[in-house]
Each structure stands twice: as structure tokens, then as C-alpha cells.
Amino acid sequence: MSDLFWPGDERAADLFTDASWLVAMTRVEQAWLDALARAGVAPATADLIGLVGPDDTARVARAAEGTGNPVPALVALWRTRATGPGAGWVHRGLTSQDVMDTGLVLMLRDVLVRVRVELRAQVGTLVALVDGHQDTLMAARTLTQHAVPTTFGAKAAGWLTGVLDAADTVSRARLPVQFGGAAGTLSAAVELARLRGLGDPTAVVTGIVADAAETLGLRPAHPWHTTRSAIVALADALVACTGAWGRVATDVATLSRSEIAELAEPEAPGRGGSSTMPQKRNPVLSLLIRRAALTAPGLVATLHTAAALAGDERPDGAWHTEWATLRDLARRTVVAASQTSELLAGLWVDTARMRATAEGAWADLTAERRSIAAFATTEPFRESHATLDATSAADTYLGITDILVADVLTRARDYLEASQ
Question: Which positions are catalytic?
């Protein structure tokens, strides 16, 4: 898949494409039908896999306008093309939203798997950067101006902390199945179990939900048609990632400016060029990552708004806004994940330039230290701290930098060990 308006989109491959959604929805229907048959509600199952494919996408999409979603058209195709006594039982007890929601969760799971792989690679790369540059002196900058001395190891430790925080958020993501029937009560499924003469129909249907959830590898859950917390939590996990990566990309873009030149992106044929200026080496990876970080919060805001307006027992439009929004958010997050991994793996750190800049600005970088020393000689301070040695501070004025670096390295190594 490619997108002229989102360079790099092909990095997301077939994740969250129309074809992958058809596959996901087919898996949902198959799991439900198989569970109905195993419970004795349906007389038999039917093989739905492969009955609907990419060639059907345009037809299903056109039909979806008439019903508001593609499931009714899919159900018609499955029932027509399936064979055997189970064919007529396709979709019995479900509603369109069950199939759409559970299909979305399946696709989001695939996205999270890819994101976790990228996060782990980034943590490994960042550990090496932090460890290797604990003593690389550089100027810290606040509000765009020189502030005090720091180290590149400390800066990279900040990046690492953000990536680890994002990884923690992703690890907490929950993937619930959605089987609720027309209004979230599974009344049709229970009625089918009763008409088939099965004892305790509600227990039978509860077992069917658990069975289908296990088949799909999702968490059993009560219906959540208008309780969209699961969707917004998954979206929040993705935006936590783009935010962490955007922070890295912003620093790299800033420090790769011609007048700073302390960092540089990895080189690649054709990357960073200009259509008119032959000298340019633009930080393309950084700007594309920042693009994702800038747009993702707006997408997530749409999902939060939709969740707040999901009324009654089935939403009238709020639910429908989620599909394309989640597609864009998911694919863009995967693209940014890949680009960030590449950026970090090939990042060029000019340690000599960092030190030269810091040394050239040393008078400014140590201005705070001199003001602290001056304060320490005042009468009120000396009365409270009679034994103070105002000249005892470290020459480079690095405070607790070593502790910050050591702590984040410990956390990162624990994460890498736990995620093996």
C-alpha cells in the first residue's frame, strides 16, 4: 500500500488495509459460528475463510452506503457462498457492530505486535547511546537558549525514558472481544439456545462468547457497544508512542541545524535532498516522525469525542467515525515506529562539536553556578550553613546526571530482559 499524502506509508504493509479488515471480520464470524456449533446451538458450522476476498472490496464498499457499514453485504455473500447446513447460521445472534468492533480489535492487536517489536529495538539502541555518551559534554538548551552544561548521555536518557513510558502504556493495552447482539443483551443468541432446547440458555451463550474469544485470542468481555473505553485506551497507547518519538525527532531536527550540527540523521540514497538546492541534507526522518506526532493527538481527540457521544445502546454516527480514524492512527503509528528505529540506529553524534560548543559558551553555561556561589557568600546563607565550601561543586556542574543515567539504564535493561 502507498499513499502520496503520507510518505513512508508502505512501511505499514498490509496492516489496517481494506483487505486485512475483510480477513479480520471473516475470522470473527467464523469463530462465532464455530462456537455456536460446538455449543449445539447451530446444527453445523461452515467454512467462511476465503469466501470473500480483495475482489469483493469495491462491491462491499458500495453496498455499505445503504446500511451504514459493510457487514450486511458481507453476511449476504457468506450465506450465499458457504455450503452445508451451517451456511444459514452465519451471523445468527450477532449484530454488525460486533463484527466491526471485534475485527478492529484484531487489527489493533497486529499493530501493537509490530509496535512492541519497534519499541524493543529502540530501547536497545538507546541503551547503547546512553551508555556510550555518559561523559559526552554538551550545552543544555532551555527555551531555545544555552542553559547549563549537560551530557548527551543525559539527553538520550530522556529519550529513553519517554520510549519506556510508551512501552509501559502499550503493555497495559487490553484487547476485548465484542459480542452483544442487537442491543448488547445477546437476546437473540439466548433465544436460539432456548429454542434448541438447551438447558440454561444464558450459561450456554456465556460459554459461546468465551469459546469464540479464546479462538480469536482476545479477552472475554461483556458487550461494550456504547462504552468505548477500550477503543480510546488503545488509541491513547498509540499516541503515547508517537509523542515519545516526536520528542526524539524534535531534538534531532534541532541539533542537526547547520549552525549547531551536533547530530545528523543516517544517510540513505536519495534521502534529504532538495528539488533545487544541491547542498541540502534535510532531516527527513525527523520531520516525518514529527508529522505523525503532530497529527496523532487530533485523531485520538476524535475518538474521545466519539466515545463521549456514543448514546443509547448503539451509537448513531459516533461509532462510525472510529473506523477511518483508527486506520489512519494505526498505520501512521507503525510508520513512525519504523522511522524512529531507523533514525536511532543510524544517528550520527558529533561529540567534538558538542564539546566545542559547550566550551565556547562556558561563561554562559556556568552563569547559574556563579550566581549560586555568590549567594552562598551572603550573610543569611553563611549563618545557616557555616561549613559550606562554595568552591566544592564539580567543575562541569552536572548535578545528578550520573544518577539519572544509571537509573534509566537499569530500568531499560530490566525491560529488555522481561520482554525477551
Answer: 274, 314
Q: Tell me, what amino acid is at 418? A: A
CA 6 to mean position of chain CA atoms: 17
The 3-state DSSP class for residue 149 equals strand
pLDDT, one tens digit per residue, over 343-395 is 999 999 999 999 999 999 999 999 999 898 888 877 666 655 555 454 444 45
- Cβ contacts of residue 151 below 8 Å, gap of 6+? 133, 134, 135, 136, 137, 138, 398, 401, 405
320's grid cell: 462510525
Reported pTM: 0.94
Residue 135 DSSP one-character state: T
Secondary structure element (H or E) that encloses residue 317, with its range: none
- In whole angstroms, what is the distance from residue 33 CA to residue 14 CA? 26
Q: Which CATH class is domain 1-93+186-221?
A: mainly alpha
366 vs 137: CA distance, rounded Å: 13
Domains of the chain by residue range: 1-93+186-221, 95-178+223-362+399-420
> Hey, do 1-93+186-221 and 95-178+223-362+399-420 end up sharing a CATH topology, with the first three levels equal?
no
Let me know: does 29 contact 90? Beta carbons within 8 Å.
yes
* CA angle, residues 397, 398, 401, in degrees to nearest 5: 170
pLDDT digits (tens, 9 = 90+) for 65-101: 999 999 999 999 999 999 999 999 999 999 999 999 9
Helices in 217-321 by DSSP H: which ranges? Answer: 229-255, 284-308
Cβ-contact 210, 220 below 8 angstroms = yes
CB 296 within 8 A of CB 334: no
User: Domain 95-178+223-362+399-420 carries which CATH code?
Assistant: 1.20.200.10
C-alpha cell at position 60: 462491499
Task: Kindly compute the dihedral angle of the four CA atoms of residues 232, 237, 241, 247, in this order, to the nearest 10 degrees.
Answer: 70
